[in-house]
Amino acid sequence: MSERDPEEIQETPERQPRFSRRGFLTASSVSLATTGIATIGTAALHPAAAAPPLQADATPVAEHMADMEDSPRPIAFFNPHEAATVDAIASRIMPGDEHDPGAHEAGVVFFIDRNLGGANLGYSLKTYTQGPFPVISEEPVEVTASSNRYLYDYIDLGTDQASRYGYQSVLSPQEMYRRGLEFIDAYAQSKHQGNFVDLTAEEQDGILTDMQEDKATGFDGPSGRAFFTQLRNDTIEGMFSDPMYGGNQGLVGWKLIGYPGAQRFYTPDDIKNPNFRRTPQSLGQLLMNEGH
Asked: Which pLDDT belongs to residue 135?
């Protein structure tokens, strides 16, 4: 892990972060999932479909995902092309390289895949798909909005209240991803005559920016903004959750923010010492160390 401050990273043609990761975390206002239950094993599952051939001028992300079918880490939900696309998207949201790891190096795509495939707890549980659905407004919401005539269809909420409602959509997370990834490739084809994984980093950033600003066309449920938000939140969770869920491989996310992970205890002297540091460890490592 590089000891460089993430904000000091210089842009290069191969690595063009849209913004510093520290700033990204500060702006995210998303709680980091850092605890869980006993280590979950992953069965060897085969990809659902074969990946389409990559173009000769494919981006580095596409190249190092091209062998997804033979990956030592199996995919449970995505087909190889979908997995490569999600990895490319996460790699633009949280850029990195072998010296300063980001979403690709942390294995965020495997975290998302395991959630959707049911290996984790999150998306295998029942999902609320009935109204009223929240309509989020950046403007203050009047108190009287809670008694609007369409109360059983939707409810008006301010952005400060949105997190209380969790995931809520007529689409399951699996449907959202499957449809959303098709829309992304269709939009990329309409703008640059290539799938998302075949575009340059600058072109990929443009696609994601259009989605974030709800300017991307052809997103007929989920909307571009809704799918970008889902991808962004899942990338954050995959980067900083315990490795048992598939992401944060090598604890690179925790090392980035200085989080010690699962520790049994701290002594009073540890707490008083401003220079005290402890090597991060996962919950699995904690349980394994206790077995010795």
From this structure: 75
